[in-house]
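Quick check before the chapter quiz. The format below is the same one you will see on the exam, so make sure you can read both the input and the output lines.
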Amino acid sequence: MTATTRRTAVPAVAVVLTGANLLNNQLAPGWYLVTCPVTAAVLVALGRADGCTWAELGLDRDTLRPGLGWAAALTGATAAGYTMAAAWPVTRPALADARMAGVSGRGTLWRALVRIPLGTVLLEETAFRSVLPAMLARRYGPGTTTAVSSLTFGLWHILPSRGLRQDNQVAGRAFPDGRDGAVLAGAAAVAGTAAAGVVLGALRRRGGLLAPVALHWALNGVGAGFAWAVARRPPPH
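Here is the expected output.
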């Protein structure tokens, strides 16, 4: 790897991610299931060109067995948590998502089993728990690597969080109307996802890429199923 390649590798990842974010949220959202896998493949290629090994990317065979164990435990724990939240009237509104109100059961399965894993989870975990941390770790210490990759993960969610107040009634009550409420909601989304990035990164170091992939899918995919169920539930009299 030349000195020029070393200097431009991480900026190249930033450019690719910025382009994908704009495509997914503004320019071509209908191409989501094409943009995400293609971008993930490009990122892996950039990581390999930077000299990252499969082990550094969290994709070596040695991580498969511990990753499967983590995946089973995390998915089960997430489902149990959602079940308790849905059963308790105080926490049930937190599961509500206006985007699921008019979605059919088949549409919910499509989201949970296709759109979320092949779009959201594949790209975000490849970017923020595999390629970017591996490339940063070759240049900086573990603290900087965790901070930068987690903060970038948070900033990635600025555009997707624009409808947060409208989609979730708890968020709608928590943040005021108008521009100030939108800014606060966006800041909360960035902070929350950055914190989640720290947790997912820790899982990556313990169970390879499969561990954070499983938790990410469980939170979003299983969560979509519970949001659909809550949306169909008749309001209390």
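If your answer matched, good. The chain has a mean pLDDT of 87.
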